[in-house]
Design goal:
The complex is a heterodimer. Chain A is an alpha/beta fold. Chain A folds into four domains: 19-133, Ubiquitin-like (UB roll) (Roll), CATH 3.10.20; 299-372 and 577-750, Rossmann fold, CATH 3.40.50; 374-571, Dimethylsulfoxide Reductase, domain 2; 809-936, Beta Barrel (Barwin-like endoglucanases). Chain A is 29% helix and 17% strand. An eight-stranded mixed sheet of chain A has the order 15-14-25-26-27-12-13-37, with helices on one face. Chain B has one domain. Classes of the chains: A alpha/beta, B mainly alpha. At the A-B interface, helix 22 of A face helix 1, helix 2 and helix 3 of B. Bound molecules: iron/sulfur cluster (3 copies) and FE2/S2 (inorganic) cluster (FES). One iron/sulfur cluster is lined by residues 244, 246-247, 249-251, 274, 278-279, 281-282, 413-415 of chain A.
């Protein structure tokens, strides 16, 4: 496919149902009311010259290039700001218009460097195109003063700003305001003196509020804002649509290529999850794919004390198979297991769990969702009947009250946060329940009506107190409950929450949330119109994670906020394919589509397809595998695309478990921390090098497309298949589409999914089946999947993790925008300019008591372990609470987290650890010995020189 | 008792604490363990020398013993 820029209709689509017919250049066209003349013309195939308009932004009308003539009207109105009217007769090309447009263009060009041949945007510049379109052949003016020769701002690692090329169309400023919602840019000065600025005059982009989302770069019609890669490599020649491999928003991008080289990732306007927007990670942070530390050859070693030996794929796989067989024969098949990855595709995940169930002969398969959203699966399945969020992202446009609990979307799910903020700026109300004052609480033009800064670990108490308010103040939507839910269960629940001990006042000493605030927030959610709840890991990663999810579901049912646009219960998924990994049967107790392994009929279906007998008992979950390993009965593990040593709690325990195993197979891009304990390393491929699908937080299945040959030789599904073949399994998939066909045959909610359909539709939201052939943007519309909605009594049970004299502070953990999870990818990109290290946030009062200042090294200790890092003193956290991220391996925040976990799913309690902080002057013993181990474990013996 | 068993006892007690509103708590605990614990975990907690379980868990374990 030759390179085509994305189409641009000039102004956004109108949504009205009323249709209007008009005539443009002698042809009639019918469009929705509210459409601009410019867009109507574009839809009919006529492009009117334009500079300040683009269809991601509302019309501005400043460049005066898009003038048209309209019969019966005087003058030459701007087509971008003129709405269509019935019977209008428009002319877009007349001698008068041509002359006017040439005049406008001449003015622009007279103040523009004419270095087109050497400009980075040559061939992909709207100014150049428009000069051609208006037929500009010479410039009559000799400007007295120009903007030429102004200094470039190259501070951002990914894009340059060259003010001498700026035409002050303000598309960048409006993109930052309207699309991203950061409001980092302004037009300073007036008239000829006006210029674009990132904050105060001396500021550059890096030092400004800019979060490097790239929206301004995409909006800029000139080379003023341009990707450094385009300058370096040249303009792209072809484009392939694919899906971001970072977070659960699932933005789709055009990977714009020159040969096999990726020039840039540009958000795809037709992408239904992101609607043409992106964040710094997906847009720019893909350099890790070519990072020099990527391991491209398989390696083995007999013992973890030995250096690695590079071997051929055949040798590595044969060795892996012989080890797995030996261990199975010696210790029994229960000694084997596998971990699937939420970063890999659905097809790859499906194969890993199939390998464990059909190849290893047990159900010891789990996924990293264990440590993030397993409570979502349990909680929503119990209450509603499906383990997934209820809405699509578009739904937020109809929300009146948005309740965000335990989520930090501006950092964790930035593109969805931008959409949410757009709705909030239009007047929706906001409730934030979070121990920290996240950026959402107060940002430009947005202020939360209520920020309930609860004590970490008291989510259930807060939600029960909200339910108490809603029930006792008569705010329940009884009609909805009677029709849609089990009435008896509702009544049990209602009488439980109504008990005095569950009132906001009674629970205030525990939650630390002022009762009046809590009541006001509950009233707002119940009565403010469409109420939507968005939640993240601050809900799930607790000892009562599953109960909290059910408490959220209870609130939504009691207020009737389920089953239509604008409402719902929405888990914000951390990694790109958490939803998919769960859907694909990665949990040890269930097969694809959330069907319990003990269900004989479901097993029979898989047994027929796979030609094996399946175990009917649930297998081990990750923490149980590690326990079994230290007990000496679990001996071999195949880990695809996960770094459990860094991401899982209580690092010492994970290390001990891995060390006790005889065969650890790590299949990944880099020698990650887990690989320090591995015996076999199988190089993985990046999302740019494979075909498959990811499923985002709105259940949207989206294609991942191969844009370059895997540097390591194979896509990850091929590696798993080769391992299966080495074990003697008869697998012969020629393409991931065949794996999806198998998934569709075996999983009712995927029955209508195939690669062909995804190519046609762009994406599909499951369930896709006979009753919903085009997928299901919103769930539980006419009734709950389980039949009647189930109210579950969620008693507040305090965590066993308590503060005391030795560990008086509560540690809670999270992530930041520029880094992703354990940072294996983002740390290997220029994103490090925004986050060089993990920092400990501590309140000024706690800091002062301990003699700690911002920038000091501090020792962070819990009963599980201790580590050191630098402190930053801030009021974002409440007194008594400290906070850090876990992106860097040498900080190892998980050395201090404990193995306490959610009661129903064993999801670790990352969000609450009792700790003590004290001044420190350097790394702990563990950090030092770990650094040594790390160096030791990464030695690769030089292969003998080949002839 | 091994540390793994200690852990299982704590998990079982935690499950019971969170299922207090079920009409039949021991039955609900037994069902949860049957659905989500692998056979070895169940075997470990059913061992005769296990101590420290709450009364609800004790009756749940009896139910599991009877069923196996
Ligand atoms: S990159 Fe994004 S945040 Fe930064 S100035 Fe541009 S639009 Fe604003
Ligand atoms: S930087 Fe680009 S988008 Fe912004 S005003 Fe200048 S030309 Fe327009
Ligand atoms: S919001 Fe998430 S999916 Fe979108 S570009 Fe950023 S990391 Fe990728
Ligand atoms: S495009 Fe209409 S005024 Fe600029």
């Amino acid at each position: 496919m030759t390179y085509q820029p994305q189409s641009d209709f000039g102004t956004p689509a109108a949504t009205s149902d009323a249709q209007i017919t008009l005539t443009i250049d002698g042809r009639t066209v019918t469009v929705p009311a509210g459409t601009s003349v410019m867009r109507a013309a574009a839809e009919q195939g006529t492009s009117i010259p334009k500079l300040c308009a683009t269809d991601s932004l509302s019309a501005f009308g400043s460049c005066r290039l898009c003038l048209v003539e309209i019969d019966g009207r005087r003058g030459t109105p701007a087509s971008c700001t003129t709405p269509v009217e019935p019977g209008m007769v428009v002319h877009t090309q007349t001698p008068r218009l041509q002359k006017l447009r040439k005049g406008v263009m001449e003015l622009y060009i007279s103040d523009h460097p004419l270095d087109c041949l050497t400009c980075g945007a040559n061939g992909d510049c709207e100014l150049q195109d428009q000069a051609g379109a208006v037929g500009l052949r010479d410039v009559r003016y000799q400007p007295v003063e120009t903007h030429l020769g102004q200094a470039k701002d190259q501070s951002n690692p990914y894009f340059d700003f060259d003010p001498s090329k700026c035409i002050v169309c303000s598309r960048c400023v409006r993109a930052c305001d309207e699309v991203q919602g950061t409001l980092a840019l302004t037009v300073q000065g007036r008239g000829f003196g006006s210029k674009i600025s990132a904050g105060i005059a001396s500021d550059n982009f890096l030092g400004s509020e800019c979060v490097s989302c790239g929206a301004c770069v995409q909006a800029c019609p000139t080379a003023t804002l341009i990707e450094k890669k385009v300058v370096e490599i040249g303009t792209p020649e072809r484009a392939v649509v694919t899906t971001c491999a970072y977070c659960g928003v699932g933005c789709t991008f055009r990977a714009e290529m020159r040969g096999e080289q990726l020039v840039r990732m540009v958000p795809w306007k037709e992408g239904k999850a992101n609607r043409g927007h992106s964040c710094v990670k997906g847009r720019f942070a893909w350099g890790y794919a070519q990072h020099q530390e990527r391991i491209l050859k398989p390696m083995i070693r007999r013992s973890i004390q030995d250096p690695w030996q590079e071997v051929s794929w055949d040798d590595a796989l044969a060795y892996a198979a012989s080890e797995l067989k030996r261990i199975s024969a010696t210790y029994g098949k229960q000694a084997l297991g596998g971990i699937t990855s939420s970063r890999c595709t659905n097809e790859e995940t499906f194969l890993v769990q199939k390998l464990v169930r059909a190849g290893f002969g047990n159900n010891n398969v789990d996924t990293c969702a264990r440590v993030c959203h397993s409570p979502t699966g349990y909680g929503l399945k119990t209450t509603f009947g499906t383990s997934a969020g209820t809405q699509d992202f578009d739904s937020v446009e109809d929300s009146d009250v948005i309740l965000v609990i335990g989520a930090n979307p501006t950092d964790g799910h930035p593109v969805f946060a931008s959409r949410m903020k757009r709705r909030l700026r239009k007047g929706a109300k906001l409730i934030v329940i979070d121990p920290r004052r996240t950026d959402l609480v107060r940002s430009p033009h947005i202020e939360a009506q209520h920020h309930l800064a609860l004590q970490p670990g008291t989510n259930v108490a807060v939600l029960t107190a909200m339910a108490h308010t809603i029930v006792t103040e008569g705010l329940v939507n009884e009609a909805f409950v009677k029709e849609r839910c089990d009435w008896d269960e509702y009544q049990d629940w209602a009488s439980f929450v109504s008990e005095d001990r569950n009132s906001p006042e009674a629970l205030e000493p525990v939650t630390k949330v002022p009762a009046a605030d809590l009541r006001a927030a509950a009233r707002l959610y119940a009565t403010g119109g469409n109420g939507a709840i968005y939640y993240g890991l601050g809900v799930t990663e607790h000892s009562q994670g599953s109960s909290t999810v059910m408490a959220i579901a209870n609130l939504a049912m009691a207020t009737g906020n389920i089953g239509r646009r604008g409402v719902g219960v929405n888990p914000l998924r951390g990694q790109n394919n958490v939803q998919g990994a769960c859907d694909m049967g990665s949990f040890p107790h269930e097969l694809a589509g959330y069907r319990h392994i003990s269900d004989a009929a479901t097993r029979a279906l898989f047994e027929r397809e796979w030609g094996v007998q399946l175990e009917s008992e649930p297998g081990l979950r990750i923490p149980n595998m590690l326990d079994a390993a230290t007990d000496g009965v679990f001996k071999a593990i195949y880990i695809q695309g996960e770094d459990i040593l860094q991401s899982d709690p209580n690092t010492h325990h994970v290390a001990a478990g891995l060390e006790a195993m005889e065969c650890v197979i790590v299949h990944d891009l880099f020698l990650n921390e887990t690989a320090n304990y591995a015996h076999i390393f199988l190089p993985g491929s990046t999302f740019l090098e494979k075909n498959g699908t990811f499923t985002n937080a709105e259940r949207r299945i989206q294609p991942v497309r191969k844009v370059m040959t895997p540097l390591n030789g194979y896509e990850d599904w091929e590696v798993t298949q080769k391992l299966a073949q080495a074990l003697g399994l008869d697998w012969n998939y020629a393409h991931p589409s065949e794996i999806m066909d198998e998934i569709a045959r075996l999983t009712p909610s995927f029955a209508g999914v195939s690669f062909d359909r995804l190519d046609q539709e762009g994406s599909l939201q499951w369930p896709v089946n006979e009753s919903a052939p085009d997928g299901s943007p919103i769930m539980h519309v006419d009734g709950f999947v389980r039949g009647k909605g189930k109210f579950v009594v969620t008693d507040y049970v305090p965590t066993d993790e308590r503060t005391g004299p030795r560990y008086p502070l509560l540690l809670t953990t999270g992530r930041i925008l520029s880094q992703y999870n354990v940072g294996a990818q983002t740390r290997r990109t220029d994103n490090v300019v925004w986050h060089e290290e993990d920092l400990l946030e501590i309140h000024p009062v706690d800091a002062e008591n301990r003699g700690i200042k911002s920038g000091d090294w501090v020792r962070l200790a819990s009963r599980a372990g201790e580590t050191t890092l630098r402190a930053t003193v801030t009021e974002r956290v409440a007194p008594g609470v400290v906070y850090t991220t876990f992106h860097h391996p040498l900080t190892q925040a998980n050395v201090v987290t404990t193995d306490y976990s959610d009661w129903a799913t064993n999801c670790p309690e990352y969000k609450v650890t009792a700790v003590q902080i004290s001044p420190s002057n350097g790394p702990t013993e563990w950090q030092e010995s770990y650094a040594k181990l790390q160096n030791n474990a990464r030695r690769i013996a030089k292969a003998e020189a080949a002839e | 008792m091994t540390s793994t068993t200690d852990n299982l006892v704590r998990m079982a007690n935690q499950i019971a604490a969170n299922l207090q509103h079920e009409p039949d708590v021991p039955k609900a605990v037994a069902e949860h363990i049957r659905l989500f614990w692998d056979p070895r975990m169940r075997q470990l907690i059913l061992a005769p020398d296990v101590s420290g379980v709450s009364p609800d868990v004790a009756s749940a374990l009896d139910q599991l013993r009877d069923a196996s």
